[in-house]
Structures are given as C-alpha cells and as structure tokens.
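Suppose you are handed a protein chain with no further information: no name, no annotation, nothing but its sequence. What can you learn? This example shows the usual starting point.
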Amino acid sequence: MSQTNKDADDSVEKLIASQISQWDLARSNYMDLENAMLRTVILDNGCRIKIQFNPSRMRSSAARVDKKSVSRRRCFLCSGNLPDQQRGLVFEDRYLILVNPFPIFSRHLTIPLKEHTDQLIGGRFDDMLRLSRFLDSFIVFYNGPQCGASAPDHFHFQAGNKGFMPIEEEYHHFSRKLIAGKEGCTIEAMDGYYRNTLVLSGKNNEVLTTFFGKIYHILRQSQESGDEPMMNILAGYEDGLWRVFIFPRRAHRPRQFFEKDDGQILISPASVDFGGVWITPRREDYDKLDSETVMDIFAQVSYGGMEWQNIKNILCNHK
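A reasonable first move is to predict its three-dimensional structure. Written in structure tokens, the prediction is:
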C-alpha cells in the first residue's frame, strides 16, 4: 500500500469509527450487523452464496424507484439533506465519502457525486477506477438505475471491505474464457457462473476505460429501453492491478418479488448479491432461499443463452 493509500485508509477508518461512535443510527445498525444471521448455500457448480438476514435493508430492497415515486421525496444523497450527525470526506473535490448507516459490510461506504445528477455510469467509469485505487482496501460498486440503485436520481458509488463477497475468491478458481486483450489488459467471460459475468483486468486505466466503453455500447444496442444498459459493476485494485466485474442484466427484479403471500421473496438483486451475498430484510425470505431458488432468480435477471453468446461474439470481433 502506497503512502497515499495508507493515508486514505487511515482517514476512512477514522471516519467510520467516529460516525459509529457519535451517530446513533449508524451505531445501532452496525451493532446489529455484528449479530446478523448469515448462512451459506452451495450451487450445483460449487459456487457459494451467503444469505444475510438484515432487516435494516428493507428500505433499499423494497424501494420504489419509478420516476413518480422518486420525484415525491427529498434526495437523501444531496449534501443539504444529509442527517445532522453525518460527516464525510471529499474525494477529488467531486465526490463525498460517507459512512452508510444501513450496512451490509462491516465497513460500508456510500460515495455520492456532489452534483445532483442522474445515476448513469456513462463517462464516469474512470472515476470508479480512481476511486477503487484510492480505497484499495475496499471493493467499489455501482448499481444501475434499474438494477438496485435506491437513489436513481443522484449519481453515487458504494464500497465495502474486501474479503466478504465470494466472487473475490471464486474468480481465481472458476473457469474463464479470454475474450480480448490489449497492452496487458484483458476482457474475460465467466460462463456457467449462474450470473454470466464479464471481467476486466489490467494496469492501464485508459485501456480498461476503452474496454468498458465497448461493452457499454454493445449492451446499449442489445437493449431497447432505459437511459443506460442494465448492469451492475464491482471494481477492486490490488498490487497495481484493477479487476472489474460487470454483470449484464435482463431484468431488475425476479417474479418472486411480485408474488403474493407465501410465494413472495423480497429479493431485488444488486451488485453485492451478484458478488455472492444475498441480502434478505425479512426472516421468512432468509429461511426460504435455497440453491434452486437462487439459481432460478439469477437465470431470470442475468443475460443467458444466445443473447449472452452474441455479446461475447461481438466483443471478440470488436475493434
């Protein structure tokens, strides 16, 4: 870790400690997280999915993110609307690093842009790379406006401590196919992972940003509606190397979300779920989830079949 990264890590740790100490809401929810129920299911390809029972995440999991509902509430990420006890750190004079008071991770950050503008990643992928390098003990993640973002009206990233999501380890053991490469940077595909995944790796942020632009363009052409192609993104930086996981999406929520009575499972998959940690705000859903249901939900919301093969073929031939 460079001196700059060590200084950043120290500053963030001090922020987290002070917020948990001085902010009642944060302290209560981080204390509850320490005792949160957590179990693991194994999919038939050997992948692990952690199931976390986390009632404080109900607001996010069940959030109404249609434009009419969003327009009726104050933006909770604008600096003028933050709780009185909330404090933050400035990144590059553009972003504010905040402690998330409704945590999934033992160290969970929300990182909104200072400007109130829509949750659209186009033109900001390089910001994500720089941020993940600055916060190199964290995984930085992005939820698209139709893919789990509970504030689609205000651009933001989130970040959580490394070592919690199974995909971080499974990447090294799961089969991957090289799709493209340039100047030591690669695009790989993780097929058969139950959430078909594109992985960017390399040390050159400009090449990685170009790769992302190609993926963005191809996905945009394959989807007929929405302000941007549906996707979730995880980005980490370690030993001079970025690794970015991109999860193309075909749907926001599975049919189980809209079922009635016993058939309902209140799951709205976002980046952390795709990383292998499923967040359940209700105890009945925590008890109900099994490997078959997890695989079924991934199949509903992820690219698959010929549409997935077409994406890979286009990337292979894209110049």
